[in-house]
Amino acid sequence: MNTVSSLMDGRVRAVNIGLASFAETLRSAGVPVVQVDWRPPAQADPVRGRKLAQLIGNPLVDQANATAVGRMLAVQPMLTNVQVAGELLPELRSGRLLLHAGPPIDWERMSGPMRAAVAGAAILEGWASTPEEAEKEAARGGIEFSPCHHHSAVGPMAGVISASMPLIVVEDAATGRRAYSNLNEGQGRCLRYGALGGDVMERLRWMGARLGPSLAAALRSLREPVDLGAIIAQALQMGDECHSRNVAASALLVRQLAAALAGQEPLGGHEALEFLSDNNYWFLNFSMAASKLATDAGRGVRHSTVVTALARNGVEFGIQVSGTGDRWFTAPAPVPDGLYFPGYGPADANPDIGDSAIAETNGLGGFALAAAPAIVGFVGGTPADALRVSEEMATITVTRHPAFQLPALGFVGSPYGIDVRAVTDAGLEPTITTGIAHRRPGIGQIGAGLTHAPLDCFTAVLDAVVVPADDGAGATPREEE
Predict the structure, then answer these.
(1) Which CATH class is domain 76-290?
(2) What is the pLDDT of residues 441-466, one digit of tens each?
(3) Which helix (H) or strand (E) holds 167?
(4) Is 1 exposed, middle or buried (0-12, 13-18, 19+ CB in 10 A)?
(5) pTM, entire model
(6) Residues 6+ apart with CB under 8 A from 227
(7) Do 465 and 327 form a contact (C-beta atoms < 8 A)?
(8) Between 3.90.1700.10, 3.30.200.20, 3.40.50.2300, 3.30.2000.10, what CATH number should domain 46-72+299-464 receive?
């Protein structure tokens, strides 16, 4: 049989790789086309591409990644306490230091919502009496700044933590290592979104004086710490992804604490219960602290290309990688794609901000989107899109989390352990669920939606990593501090 003749006699079908415009030309002629969304590895950079080729399938890198992810999966996050930040982090007691979300940034480069959060924290600490005074103090260098991530902590949105704020304490049951986050302010006008005013400050002061102490007393009265990992696993079965949607997880946590809180009336236990009953975002900060604890366990493994942090400061998006320690790899932060409150739109939005993408680093959020398909409605998507995103994220991770199961995908584990090699090879940016803050200080939240970790952050890692040669030493983790 003449192969060429048989091909020409049959109906033409095509697979188009790359530019979609080629497929459209064929479709207009009535030809069935399958479009493959393919991008050149390492953004078509030949030097980075050669290094990527040496890293993919490298047994020492594979071994290092297995070590890093194994340590992350072994963490058992237990909620043990709520305590004042200055007592947990002594560095906050000396001088005027504020922690913030994302990679390092100074006052001059801070976005509007972060500047507003800094002003609010300065007023809370008594360093200033008005936002204007706080801004002048920051501009003259009277306030120091450091990323939350540099202090085993994380904070949503602006993420500002000051000495008098109560912090969630999460401990690993096996090692005793800790991670921290501030308490969630609830819905409406909040400091984390850059809102300012008497209502915001009154809530913060109440949280420090009543909410934090009542929670601490309630936790002390429990027979054993609260297993946050178990709550997360159960919430994924109930429609949460434990980043932007925390309805089930918040209810599960309140149920465990309710009786103990009710017994703390002198400290404000009933006030706390009333506040928590109307706060569907309550669990977010607990999820973040648990995720920070897990991902920190994977840090410092020689040759590992596993991501240990995704974070945004409202100007830059930064990532950290196990094998490169505390170094940040940054790119401009994107503006999220989302659903806006009435009267607002993309022109009002600040670029993405917050440490909450630590959830995605831990296999939650966008990686577990199949568990919470309602979220894709923010961007006009469908439940099928949510399943597709979780399946796509599995192509850029090392493994799946055995406990974080996704019912809509047959109870398969959530994709886990973002691998720089896979991201840069596929050109596929990690998906993140997020809130949207107004770009101007003092206004606050204006929407919610999805965003992506910029590919430039990941390709930059290729410049920093060293391709390992098998010298007999293998992939050895650095010494723990």
Answers:
(1) alpha beta
(2) 989 999 999 999 999 999 999 999 99
(3) strand 166-172
(4) exposed
(5) 0.91
(6) 76, 77, 78, 79
(7) no
(8) 3.90.1700.10
